[in-house]
Amino acid sequence: MPDTMANLPRSKYIAQFDRRVWILFVGRIISATGFSIVIPFLSIYFYGLGIEMTTIGLVFLISTGTGAIGQLVGGEISDRFGRRNVMIAAMASRSVVFVLISLAIASGNAFVPVAVLIVCSSFFGSLFEPASNAMIADIVTPARRLEAYGLLRIGQNIGWTLGPLIGGLLAVMGYSTLYLLTAVSSASVAFIILFLVNESARSGIVRERLGLRDFVEIGRNHRPFLLFCFFSVFLFLVMAQMSSVYSVYSENVVGVTITEVGYLYAINGLLVVLLQLPVSRFIARYRMTTVVAFGALVYAIGYFSVAFTYDFATLTIAMVIITMGEIVSSPSSMNLVANLSPENERGRFMGIFGLFTNSGWSLGPFVGGLLFDAFKVEPLLLWGGVASFGIISAIGFLVLRRFINESTDRVGGKAARS
Question: Is 255 left (phi over 0), alpha (psi -120 to 50) or beta?
Fold first, then answer.
């Protein structure tokens, strides 16, 4: 990516991207703010009801496993019915689910109904992601995609900066009220896309439904893509500790307050907002498999460092390292998937990638919950176990580097053929 991009006047820089990129950027801010008002505290809420971490991890396992199916479905139907329609339906449905969660909590009959509705929320939310990512691939030139995906990460993390702060401060109002705020944010995004976003998919992409034969064909013709998806499962298993074990460990083992947990998540979001674009420009000179492998290794170091934390300050240091892993690996992963995807099958390939990564998100809280229940008094074993999955993914990405054409493995690289 040319260095001169950093020196463009703001108005010209904004004009470098299609208007829809900026609308999706704003939509990410709103939806992430609403979602992160509640999600960092969900494990704490369940744990406060006397639910064991293994059981909480099982809820996340089922939830994000359902979300993995949602990613696949979302990618398929975004190719059939358009990116815009899928995004609107996903956010509107999710808003309704959040209202129902609020009512379930207010009724006092909380755990089972909330757990079921969280699963539904995960499915509808996952429909949105492949449609949104495919739209970016549709409307942004290959040379600019890394930065465009970085912008979406910034929008999401502005939300992750604001949401936990709001949630931590408003927790005294009760979880029921917080979920109503989340419902409003999802509904707002649906209306924004309805009135301001035009369709990006080229007309007439109609195929047979995805079946086992299609997976076999993709495995035969796009093996590097499937291998990248496979190793990404381990990376996302590590990432998923942020939404489950990390917050519970911080409050119940290290001993920080819920408000301070909110501050830690806000630090994560703020760092992404400040550093994502500069880091994206820097890493654009390297092959993407190398960058993602380095990000996975940084993740492993960050989570292993949690074993040595004993107060808010040391948790902050660990969070900074973890966040750097996120900044490096996340947009690079999406950019590489876009390069590995045939132009007329982007929704399908984004959905398949989401199926694998959500599988990692599914396993993460469950595996982390098992490790927490077994080793919460042995933090080196707990966080060493988590870090080992990051090391596995880093090794896998470095091996995969040998099987991907260098032009495809770089920012602005050639897209795969069908």
Answer: left
